[in-house]
Design brief:
It is built from 11 helices and 13 strands. The strands form 3 sheets. It has a 7-stranded mixed sheet with strand order 2-8-7-6-5-3-4, with helices on both faces. It has a 4-stranded antiparallel sheet with strand order 9-10-13-12. It is globular and about 60 Å long.
């Protein structure tokens, strides 16, 4: 059978690294995982207990397409608590993870052939989902002096239908302050481009609170997830916030594309939102791990790193060490037993010279991983 041209997307290289690490573990090796952006902790205990109690009396059938009303209301309240934003719960749509949010947003906002700007380096699935939908991703090479975040000059005159930004960003962990985010929103809207803000790493900040696009404008799409701060990656539940006149558009698409987000996951997510003490304890682990990475990576020889404000990543320029990040990552896995992600996932043009290190796992793993990296780099000469 034939394949569509739209299906010719690139692989998600970090998943290939995970598979190589799995094979090594299957062969009996102990691998330190710095490749995947996944918390080492699971869903909050109260969330598991709430779901267990609910399953005893509820068959867990379909929910309405936009999500459990109680969960939408609680998410809206989060915006008041975190950002001082009075958000209409009707604007909140519960999704099957942030990935479903991207699919719904791109489908609702853009027509085939539209050009959508994304910062490079950036989350690779933006690019591949856009391509699979018949849209044209436009990489905006970002500069170190702009903290590897896009600025308005990067897309001036590019005839974009949309702009996608993330703060804190993956893979760099850098953030946009209010002025920088506001300038991007203003520039995009001034060109008639839709603005989408990926905020899935909000809550994971170490120096200053991340700014939500909703603090600046209602005419934006915001996408978030329970995967990172709420430590629920495999539950596949997230949310999006859209302008009021887009609610019915998203609802129609969600009804047909997904029916609803997993009912069980929505129940657990609602309970997880009341577990601030446990979640903040996780953040303190990441904070400690971040400090270890900022101290330990330069000692291992990785000296050119982006300053991570949030999330749980360090992005390193390794051009002084290798011009083939994929081969370098494979070498590190083979000889050090540490799984890291080549930058090609995030920046097809410049990613040959970069690696991403995740510090989302237990502190003992991070300490062991840094020891192994130092020993490997010392032996490599």
């Amino acid at each position: 059978m034939r394949n569509s041209t739209r299906s010719r997307v690139d692989p998600f290289i970090v998943m290939d690294v995970m598979e190589a690490a799995r094979r090594a573990e299957e062969a009996g090796r102990h691998i330190i995982h710095m490749e995947v952006g996944q918390p080492g902790t699971g869903a909050p205990k109260v969330a598991l207990e709430a779901l267990g109690a609910r399953m005893a009396s509820d068959p867990m059938g379909y929910t309405v397409a936009l999500g459990l009303p109680a969960l939408r209301q609680r998410i809206a309240r989060l915006y008041g608590d975190w950002y001082g934003v009075d958000l209409n719960p009707e604007r909140v749509i519960v999704t099957s993870g942030s990935s479903a949010g991207f699919l719904l947003a791109f489908t609702a906002l853009f027509d085939s052939g539209d050009r959508v700007g994304i910062g490079a380096p950036g989350y690779p699935s933006y690019r591949q989902i856009l391509r699979a939908l018949g849209l044209e991703p436009v990489d905006l090479p970002t500069a170190p002096e702009n903290r590897l975040q896009p600025v308005a000059a990067d897309f001036a005159g590019l005839d974009l239908a949309g702009l996608m930004v993330a703060s804190p960003a993956n893979p760099t962990g850098t953030m946009l302050d209010r002025d920088a985010l506001g300038a991007l929103i203003e520039a995009a809207q001034g060109q008639g481009a839709s603005f989408i803000s990926d905020e899935i790493y909000h809550g994971l900040e170490y120096e200053a609170k991340a700014v939500s696009a909703l603090e600046i404008s209602d005419e934006v799409y915001v996408i978030n997830s329970f995967s990172k701060y709420f430590s629920m990656t495999g539950w596949r539940v997230g949310w999006m916030v859209v302008p009021e006149d887009h609610i019915r558009t998203i609802e129609r698409l969600a009804q047909n594309m997904f029916i609803c987000a997993p009912h069980a996951s929505q129940v657990a997510a609602l309970a997880a939102m009341e577990c601030e003490d446990e979640l903040q304890a996780n953040v303190e682990v990441y904070r400690r791990n971040r400090q270890l990475m900022l101290e330990g990576l330069p000692k291992a020889g990785f000296t050119n790193i982006a300053p991570p404000d949030g999330a749980f990543y360090v992005y390193a320029d390794v051009s002084d060490l290798s011009d083939d990040s994929r081969a370098f990552a494979a070498e590190i896995l083979e000889h050090a037993g540490v799984a890291v992600t080549p930058g090609l996932d995030f920046d097809p043009l410049r990613g040959h010279h970069t690696l991403r290190f995740s510090y989302a796992r237990a502190t003992a793993d991070i300490e062991e991983g840094l020891t192994r990296l130092r020993e490997f780099m010392r032996s490599r000469g």
